[in-house]
Amino acid sequence: MWNLKLNDIAKINSLSLSKKDIISYVKYLDTSNLKSNIIENFQYFEMFKEKLPSRAKRKVKQNTILYSTVRPNQKHFGILKNLDFSSILVSTGFCTIDVDNDIADPDFIYYYITQDFMIKKMQSIAEQSTTSYPSITPNDVKNIEINLPNIEIQRKIGKFLSDIESKIKTNCMINDNLEKQAKLLYDYWFTQFDFPDENGNPYKSSGGEMVWNKQLECSIPEKWEIDPLSAILNFKSGFSFCTDLYVKDGKYKLLTIKNIQDTGINFQVDNYINNVPHNVPDHCFLKVNDILMTLTGNIGRIGILYSSNCLLNQRVALVKNINEELRSFVYYLLKSDIMQKKYQTMANGSSQKNLSPIEAESVLFTYCKQVATNFSSLIDKSLKKIVSNLAENQKLISLRDYLLPLLLNGQSTIED
């Protein structure tokens, strides 16, 4: 085991755009578009038509590690693989780290310098800076100390951790595609009203009868109903748990509004509960596949449960389906653009962004039970797959986070 500085085994900020480079277009990666090794998107620029951002200067290659110099605790970092590097530029807000492959394994180094204790250390350095926001310098990155085992051990550990992350990313991609397909089908059937008619043809496009509805101020299919959400579901409020019950680790995770995010449910909770009061309603003991919606703040955020041993806190509602056969329909109905806009309009019209369950249930929607049932039958399998992938990812993340410090610090090894 060698104790080295990062500068001993890697080049920092070694490649930059020059006047000699001939590039017709640029794929630009800003710090905000990369988090925890996930690229949200690239920005595209045509060199002779558009002006590049002033920070679009760093060049990268296979296995370049990107490490944001601003607010390290926000985790804007990643390792680049299998891209067309000829057109990619990244922000000077990143340090680019190109590891010497003869001495060190890039994956091992990436996981070493992004583990929690290292992030906390770099954030501490950043907070001592004299800049207007917490930041580190390239020299701070160069001086990161690393305990380096021999190259074969590094490669085994790097591959093991990289394989876990690849599986997590694959599951995320599958879920993203399934969500897009389900949303597309929902919009096709319930917004454009091109659900299959009795002959299997798209209803509206094939001349299906449409009638004007005064309540919704739009045309809807003949014989479709206009109902409040209470016709198919109820919103059950969470419980107001006393803070005296909070513990840092325990049997039940306490899910609050901050855990229901735009991307779904985040199970990194602030508090746990061991001793549950006797008057907590049964519905607050959450189950896998339960659908939740926020009633305060960012009203209308939807998530589906993929973990057990969770309790429902106040201002988050459990969606209780009256007919379980319509679960998938209800999930995508509540996530639909039309429903989200209705909830935002209701929230913006009040002094406080709060909705009661009764208000949330009063929203009108257009509905045909048979079409909704058919939709659920088609989508149920996809939604189950999404939940299964989310649960698997949670287990993989827990495994990775448990093993990562043990492997990187030599407390555990990987057998052949």
Automatic annotation (TrEMBL):
Domain Type I restriction modification DNA specificity: 5-179, 221-356
A Pfam family recorded for this sequence: Methylase_S
Gene Ontology molecular-function annotations: DNA binding
Keywords in alphabetical order: DNA-binding, Restriction system
Keyword presence, DNA-binding: yes
Gene3D superfamilies to which the protein is assigned, alphabetical: DNA methylase specificity domains
InterPro entries with a match to the protein in the record: Restrct_endonuc_typeI_TRD, Restrct_endonuc_typeI_TRD_sf, Type-I_RS_S_subunit
Single GO BP term: DNA restriction-modification system
Sequence similarity: Belongs to the type-I restriction system S methylase family.
Protein name: Type I restriction modification system specificity subunit HsdS
Gene: hsdS-2
